């Protein structure tokens, strides 16, 4: 195997990720907040060299269990780093990993497996099989069920499988399917998006280039989804530049603060709704965020209040905030890096500019209209996926002469930066931007931990709010905060736990609207 070939020829080979790290930076660490299910003896700190060895061992076990080159290997297991090792091992034997979110329920997994052919394998664990997948007819969906942890009737226990030695499959061609990840599922059943080695490379390369330019080689601490394509550029960058990674599977603020004190990360990356719950770290006298140079958000819109508080907690001379805008179908398309002053001035609706040499952007607006006129956002990208399993026609229809319909509305500022306003399906008559409106409310009312503005009551903008510790919303303060924000319905207070969210903690707005219409969303009684 030639580990360097994964990135030198414009293709990223999943099976070689840790081999690259073992060859170039063998002592680089992967720090976990949990034990591995299949290899508990490995401990919670792996090196690149150790991880590469585990991938080789697991590849041998998958091969012994029947996985061959070209096989789909669906992975839906308890949220542990074993998921990543299994995906790399599948790639190592020439299989195509199909990443399903760890919190997927039985009907979702059943529907997604039905899109694959019956020669696919499912890698999971006894806990998932006993509970979430108990009602899924796996015998008629897949060729075999392989358990990373625990015994279960009808499943092959990988710990008991004697690994076969290599040689394993050669890397697939750059344009062949290399990975299947699913979309966030914000609007319904997630889509199974097919990435090639080439498209993965163009997810990786601009981020790698920026990391080297900014000399961002310190520890990166993150809460992320192991099932999303975002994880792969992160891993390959760490392998190439020797960057320690610290993974949190439990985003509890107290646990996160302890890990940050242990690792003193230079970069912190998390979902916006996770960072929102970490705001209290800014007041922690131990200063867990003191060494952070870059705060980075992914998957959703960040509230300015949250990121400004986080940046205030850094003791670095010039902390910066980074956010990316993109979709699994095209990769990261737009990128923003800014200082605290820039965030204060521009807010977080400014998501940046296209990636030089990788993506282009245009706004659909009437001919002759002012350049700042909002319109649909279209993107052209070298990181374009090669298809969607079971939805290839719909996938092609969303392209127009190579341009991808992002399904969002925005406008370009004076210097070409994109300002994101809303999803097309979330637009509300009379509201310029629900995202900006939510940002304003979060800033004016620090007691809020979430606010989502949705159309209800015959299309009227209705705020759904959550407060710190579910304290009753102060209606006097609310009325003062919204006095100049137009015609808003009375707010509905709910517990954050009752909001429908995706595996990346994004609010599922269409489902929220449906629950409100059906009266199935538990609403807290207002204080009298």
Automatic annotation (TrEMBL):
What residue stretches are annotated with the AMP-dependent synthetase/ligase domain? Answer: 33-383
Question: Any idea which UniProt keywords this protein has?
Answer: Ligase
Q: Which GO terms describe its molecular function?
A: CoA-ligase activity
* PROSITE patterns for the chain: AMP_BINDING
Signal peptide residues on this chain, from the entry's feature table: none
Q: Does the keyword Transmembrane apply?
A: no
Tagged with keyword Transport: no
Q: Which InterPro entries match?
A: AMP-binding_CS (IPR020845), AMP-dep_synth/lig_dom (IPR000873), ANL_N_sf (IPR042099)
- Give the SUPFAM superfamilies listed for this entry: Acetyl-CoA synthetase-like
Q: Which family does it belong to?
A: Belongs to the ATP-dependent AMP-binding enzyme family.
Q: What is this protein called?
A: AMP-dependent synthetase/ligase domain-containing protein
